TrEMBL record:
GO BP term (any one): glycerol-3-phosphate biosynthetic process
GO MF terms held by the record: glycerol kinase activity
Pathway terms, separated by semicolons: Polyol metabolism; glycerol degradation via glycerol kinase pathway; sn-glycerol 3-phosphate from glycerol: step 1/1
Class in the EC hierarchy, top level: transferase
Protein name: glycerol kinase
Sequence similarity: Belongs to the FGGY kinase family.
The entry's keywords: Kinase, Transferase
InterPro entries: ATPase_NBD, Carb_kinase_FGGY_CS, FGGY_C, FGGY_N
Superkingdom, taxonomy of origin: Eukaryota
Known EC number: 2.7.1.30
Domain Carbohydrate kinase FGGY N-terminal, residue spans: 1-61
GO CC, alphabetical: mitochondrion
Domain Carbohydrate kinase FGGY C-terminal stretches: 71-261
């Protein structure tokens, strides 16, 4: 929170405001250079040579080195990053601007736009643990494949509000469009479809902010093993979805950054070599008009899910108290860090 992403240095104005001495802050290094050597144990003498955040590491592991390339990691939630190159793009659609990587002290910095989906794989567990529609997480693919459609059923998994691009904590989950013919297969399909719709919302925001239409989406994470989901994603986005041969691209990206600093040269850092890590490619199978119609209907359902938490009665006071605990922990921990910094620096 004290780092200036433009100058790539600690921000003096912010440090002065929070009364944090700049000399107690660590030196800023790039993502890929030798920081030091291990001094003890079996790894004594081994260089420490790479440092990336998890989503930035996945971006590198997916070889998204060109401006306009994007990746999505499907886990409990979804985490999308779009490479904006050397331009620090500030979003007008609820996305976060971040430093993606800087692969060497003398290399240029690369920026990215980031958006998150709160509920992705978590909705599968919810169907299993809360509703009992499925017995195993793998079963959802079979159910969805049986019908191949939601039959007009739409699922908004806003269990704890909506993340990007809405940032609405008052939104709540919604299943709508039910008829007497709706069964668990349709609900399973709608749940997977919701993950794809949420991904499209963030990618649409990225396209508007960057001005570069996405030609394909690179994907990784545990949920990418669900082929129905991946085909749905290609249909909803109406662009190819490219699955990496390695699901743990976060670890791969960290290794690539470390290797680049050491000059190992095992992995290519050239964008044109993407084919070397591709295992599967999903092409759209429906017309763009059908995709757009389903997407616009889903967005209508999203609007209906918003504002629910603000209508709760005072009987839910205990729930409201518990929902505020994360913010309380954040405030308290921030105060402790500030007091600790002042103590270390000797400031009274």
């Amino acid at each position: 929170m004290l780092f200036n992403i433009h100058s790539l240095e600690w921000d003096k104005e912010l440090c002065d405001f929070f009364e944090i001495p700049m000399d107690i802050l660590p030196k800023v290094w790039s993502s890929s250079e030798i920081y030091g050597l291990m001094k003890a144990g079996a790894l004594e003498g081994v260089p420490i040579s790479g440092c990336l955040g998890d989503q930035s590491a996945a971006l590198v592991g997916q070889m998204c080195f060109q401006e306009g390339q994007a990746k999505n990691t499907y886990g409990t939630g979804c985490f999308l990053l779009c490479n904006t190159g050397r331009k620090c793009v500030f979003s007008e659609h609820g996305l976060l601007t971040t430093v993606a990587y800087k692969l060497g002290r003398d290399k240029p910095v690369c920026y990215a736009l980031e958006g998150s989906v709160a509920i992705a794989g978590a909705v599968v567990r919810w169907l299993r643990d809360n509703l009992g529609i499925i017995e195993t997480t793998e079963e959802i693919e079979k159910l969805a494949k049986e019908v191949g459609t939601s039959y007009g059923c739409y699922f908004i998994p806003a269990f704890s509000g909506l993340y990007a691009p809405y940032w609405d904590p008052s939104a709540r989950g919604l299943i709508c469009g039910l008829t007497q013919f709706t069964n668990k297969c349709h609900i399973a399909f709608a749940a997977l479809e919701a993950v794809c719709f949420q991904t499209r919302e963030i990618l649409d925001a990225m396209n508007h902010d960057c001005g570069i239409p996405l030609s394909h989406l690179q994907v990784d994470g545990g949920l990418t093993n669900n082929k129905v989901l991946m085909q749905l994603q290609a249909d909803i986005l109406h662009i190819p979805v490219i699955k990496s041969c390695m699901s743990e691209t976060t670890a791969l990206g960290a290794a690539m950054a470390a290797g680049a600093a050491e000059g190992v040269g095992v992995w290519s850092l050239e964008p044109e070599d993407l084919s070397t890590i591709t295992i599967e490619r999903f092409e759209p199978r429906i017309q763009a008009t059908e995709s757009n119609t389903r997407y616009s209907t889903w967005k209508k359902a999203v609007m209906k899910s918003m504002g629910w938490a603000t209508t709760q009665s005072s009987e839910n006071g205990d729930a409201n108290i518990f929902s505020s605990l994360p913010l309380g922990f954040f405030v308290v921990s921030s105060m402790i860090m500030l007091i600790g910094a002042r103590y270390i620096s000797g400031v009274p």
